[in-house]
Amino acid sequence: MSIQNINVALIGNPNTGKTSVFNQLTGLKQQVGNYPGITVEKKLGFCKLTNTIKANILDLPGTYSLNASSIDENVVIELLLNKNDKLFPDVAVVITDVENLKRNLLLFTQIKDLEIPTILVINMADRMKPKGISLDIPHLEEQLKTKVVLVSTRKGFGIDDLKNQIIDYKSLSTEPCMNASSIDEEYFDKLRKAFPNQLLYKLWLVITQDVNFLNLERNEIRNTFTKSHSDLKRLQQKETIKRYQFINDTLKIGQTIDKTNATDLRSKLDKVLTHKIFGYAIFFGILLLIFQSIFDWSSYPMDFIDATFADLANYTKNYLPTGEFTNLISEGIIPGIGGIVIFIPQIAFLFLFISVLEESGYMSRVVFLMDKIMRRYGLSGKSVVPLISGTACAIPAIMSARNIENWKERLITILVTPFITCSARLPVYAILIALIIPNNRLFGLFSLQGATLMILYLLGFGMAIFSAYILNKVLKVKTKSYFVVEMPNYKLPLFKNVAINVIEKTKSFVFGAGKIILAISIILWFLGSHGPGKDFKNAQQIVEKEVYTSPLKINPSVIPDRVSEYKLEHSYIGIIGKSIEPVIRPLGYDWKIGIAVVTSFAAREVFVGTLATIYSVGSKSDDDLTIKNRMESEVHDDGTKVFNFATGVSLLLFYAFAMQCASTLAITKKETNSWKWPMVQLIFMSGFAYIAALIAYQILK
Ligand code: GDP
Ligand code: MG
Q1: For the chain, what are the domain ranges?
Q2: Would you say 591 and 615 are in contact if contact means Cβ atoms under 8 Å apart?
Q3: Which pTM does this prediction carry?
Q4: Mutate to test the pocket of ligand 1, among 30, 149, 153, 487 (most ligand atoms within 8 A of CB)
Q5: Interval between CA 23 and ligand 1 midpoint (Å)
Q6: So what's the pLDDT on residue 619?
Q7: What atom of ligand 1 comes closest to residue 360's alpha carbon?
Q8: Rounded to whole angstroms, how far apart are CA atoms 592 and 636?
Q9: CA distances from 379 to 71, 114, 280, 548 (A)
Q10: Residue 383 beta carbon below 6 angstroms from any ligand 1 atom
């Protein structure tokens, strides 16, 4: 028995319920990927329709029309024009929202003109009664030359009906419902004569759209049928007007709306939630609540994960035969995987909140509220969530930038988010501030140390906004900015949508960025636990000899610590640390700090731990006080303090600005689908950090 595969594409305006229908059809049988070269999410899912028919369901980005103004819309057009695409739809399912039928049908008529079998889904049918909407389905089917399926993913009806229509797709009419040539008879007549074998509306799209369409001789068409830009625009407008005329005529009989029953809760809520003062107050209240809970709630699972992986590492170390392989597992792989898993609680909680806010319709109000302010800096209203989430961790924050449709705004948001002070900077700040800022009160009120911490937060935020402003001027990314605020209705979030969104985001982090994080931790482990030459290999003997022959009668209990210090010094990382000394000397750092700077590239908080190891405070050293005392008493050869004010400020500035986080680079690579942007981040941020630290040290020393 052979299995038949059908390609089904879900197409529709944003917020009409494409993803909900997709989730209903596929359950968790989904794959998320990026379209090659760009980073609009592509979701492919599978659905077994009968024993012999399987459907590949493609959830496409929201589109208002086939007159592309964004990358997302290009994606849809390219798929629909390219018959050779693996995923070229056998049947297109256009999803519409019963409350916005008129606007939604514009896209439907365009797709219908491409003569692809098309099913019209009218979703949110549960809203018909409260809104007083009734539909004449047979009339709509006749006018639109298609099958109409009434669906409510919320109430769960219509999905089986949709499946049956998909199975039956061969019986659908492919006749266009509008005649493209009515846009400009004369022009289209010529087109038809020149390319008799091609679909007229397809030709028209090839002429007007900037898409990579390879099958047709695009240049040939364009050269012979070129028109001025303004002429094309005029024709496109004419097309839209014609289409709306047709839709209006169709709906005149096909749809009746009785407004007397409609409730007005929505406009009342909108008035408060987008209010000039209350709107912001409520938004910041909600944010406060969310981030408080992210910090509080995720600290439990994070501590648990931390402890579990530490136990696991210990366990493998104790029970596996000693040797290189065991070390790789217990010191490289297990902590590496732990370093990925530890992010999961924060990612899951953040996306839980975000999807609830989105699903409920509230997020659109926030975007509306913030858009004017953010736009001044090349960001969008939707950048608010990533920027604020960045205070917890840049990883989920950068992932949450996916909601930004405009590619340039999204890119800028991704690039500047790591400037925001994340929680990994806190331990570094805390210890450095304690070292160099006296614990005094200003005017007997503000603690100087607290004020310093606040300044560091403000610096990070200021840098993010400033770089966004610069990037907005510099970046030459081709996007046409359009601003359509979708104001969907308020709804209770669908649990299934929220759950799938959380699982999907977490999966995409673990399997996308996770791989890179793991690789980098293994490399750092290798560099830190291996060294060239005899010094590294014979560390034990060398240290023992030194201790036992020393005239100072050194207590042998320090030997293990001294050995690890000696090993680290002569490991590859130690050698790197020493060899970069000339570069970091002008910032006021010695080679030991250099090692910490290198290792903390894996994650900023490693800085403190590394210094602890180097200063051989021993393994019980995560107590700040002991490390602090050690750092305080650390002196240069000439007896001056290592952590003086100038060096401390220089380090603070360095950690405020430098891209000291391999995981962030990994997630940026994943989200932008290119190594170019993480490299830009690395060079720009760390370069800036270097200069800032240099200037600070040279002035203060
Ligand atoms: P997409 O942008 O087209 O992928 O739309 P989504 O699937 O993300 O849905 C947008 C919003 O509409 C979400 O808040 C859904 O919960 C909601 N929604 C989806 N289907 C229905 C439905 O049948 N009835 C109602 N009332 N809301 C729905
Ligand atoms: Mg969607």
Answers
A1: 1-263
A2: no
A3: 0.66
A4: 153
A5: 11
A6: 36
A7: 14
A8: 11
A9: 17, 36, 18, 64
A10: no
- Tell me the CATH number for domain 1-263: 3.40.50.300
Give the pair of three-digit tokens for residue 485. Answer: 């605020």
Q: Pick the residue whose CA is nearest to atom 18 on ligand 1.
A: 17
Residue with the two structure tokens 């290999």: 537
497 lines ligand 1 (CB under 6 A): yes
Query: Along the chain (701 residues), what's the average pLDDT of each consecutive run of 10 residues?
Result: 88 88 83 52 85 92 77 78 86 93 91 92 90 90 93 92 94 84 80 81 79 59 70 81 89 79 70 87 84 75 88 88 85 81 82 85 82 83 84 86 81 95 83 86 76 88 94 74 61 86 82 76 83 84 82 76 81 88 92 86 79 55 56 81 92 95 91 92 95 95 86
* HSE of 572, CA atoms in CB hemisphere, 13 A: 8
Helix (H) or strand (E) holding 96: strand 91-97
Residue 15 Cβ < 6 Å to ligand 1: yes
The one-character DSSP state at 492 is P
Tokens of 89: 């739809």
Per the CB < 8 A criterion, the answer to whether 8 and 93 are in contact is: yes
Reduced to 3 states, what is the DSSP secondary structure of residue 458?
A: helix
Question: Which of 494, 495, 502, 504 maximizes ligand 1 atoms within 8 Å of its Cβ, making it the mutation to test the pocket?
Answer: 494
CA 624 / ligand 2 centre spacing (Å): 47
User: Position of tokens 């939604």?
Assistant: 104
> Which tokens belong to 434?
């304690």
Whether 63 is in the pocket of ligand 1, judged by its Cβ within 6 Å, is no
Separation CA 106–CA 150 (nearest Å): 18
Q: CB–CB of 468/409 below 8 Å?
A: no
Own/partner long-range contacts of 578-584 (Cβ < 8 Å, ≥24 apart): none
d(CA 152, CA 159): 8
Picking from 620, 597, 690, the residue whose alpha carbon sits closest to that of residue 650 is 690
Question: If you count them, how many residues does the chain have?
Answer: 701
What pLDDT, on the 0 to 100 scale, is given for residue 211? 60
Residue keyed to tokens 């364009």: 222
